[in-house]
Design brief:
This protein is 33% helix and 23% strand. The protein has 221 residues and is α/β, with parallel strands linked by helices. The strands form two sheets. Strands 3-2-1-4-5-6-7 form a seven-stranded mixed sheet, with helices on both faces. Strands 8-9 form a two-stranded antiparallel ribbon. Helix 1 links the parallel strand 1 and strand 2. The structure holds 5-O-phosphono-beta-D-ribofuranosylamine. 5-O-phosphono-beta-D-ribofuranosylamine (GRF) binds next to helix 1, strand 5 and helix 6.
């Protein structure tokens, strides 16, 4: 019996990753309790999803704060008051300050729709298509002060096809995001994550087969 981890989720938009966390928790395969969802955007659809599932929400509009520190201070207060242990950034479009990470040391995760350290930042599905990479994917990592840096917990790889545009690639990546984010949280809940510098190890995972992926497929080589 795994003790449920108390999570707080930071969102700005659609919240499909949040929905995946909700669904897996409700199905009982993710040992997490969503204590609070905080949005900086009062119109985020993620808030609507919370209403449907009876999840408490807070809106902290960054435009009402004089500094990043003041904004982050409010987030910290709300998350602490809700008893949050692990903070999940899920499509949260604000950069957090050092104070925030000091309040939740190695207890903030982020999901990014590329294979970090390639393509950090914004609009990365478009950048991946334009660059011409043959694979992209998504990364769950511990968040720290830098943007999209921090020790990597899980990555999932998807092919990029000749006919892809940013939207079709984003949709393919998003499907994988919805699998690896709950899995990363479950590893955390089970106390299986070990961190040594930048290297994260998950205790007792089965090793994936050493089959290389090629895209396009090889013709007999
Ligand atoms: C996802 O692609 C996530 O990786 C990125 O923003 C998007 C958010 O999607 N950080 P959603 O709000 O979870 O639907």
């Amino acid at each position: 019996m795994v003790k449920k981890v108390s999570i707080g989720v930071l969102v700005s938009g659609s919240g499909s990753n949040l929905q995946s966390l909700i669904d897996h928790s409700e199905q009982g395969v993710l040992d997490a309790e969503i204590r609070i969802v905080v949005s900086n955007n009062p119109h985020a659809f993620a808030l609507e999803r919370c209403r449907k599932h009876g999840i408490p929400t807070a809106v902290v509009d960054h435009r009402e704060f004089v500094s990043r520190e003041a904004f982050d201070g409010r987030l910290i207060d709300i998350l602490k008051a809700a008893g949050v242990e692990l903070v999940l950034m899920a499509g949260f479009m604000r950069v957090l300050s050092r104070d925030f990470f000091r309040s939740f040391p190695m207890r903030v995760m982020n999901i990014h729709p590329a294979l970090l350290p390639a393509f950090p930042g914004m609009h990365v599905q478009r950048k991946a298509v334009e660059y011409g990479v043959k694979f992209s994917g998504c990364t769950v990592h511990f968040a720290e002060e830098g943007v999209d840096t921090g020790p990597i917990i899980i990555q999932a790889v998807v092919p990029v096809y000749d006919e892809d545009d940013a939207e079709s690639l984003a949709a393919r990546i998003l499907k994988q995001e919805h699998r690896i984010y709950p899995q990363a949280v479950q590893f955390y809940a089970e106390g299986r994550i070990e961190c040594e510098g930048r290297r994260v190890r998950i205790r007792n995972t089965s090793r994936m087969a050493e089959n290389a992926l090629q895209n396009p497929s090889l013709t007999g080589f």
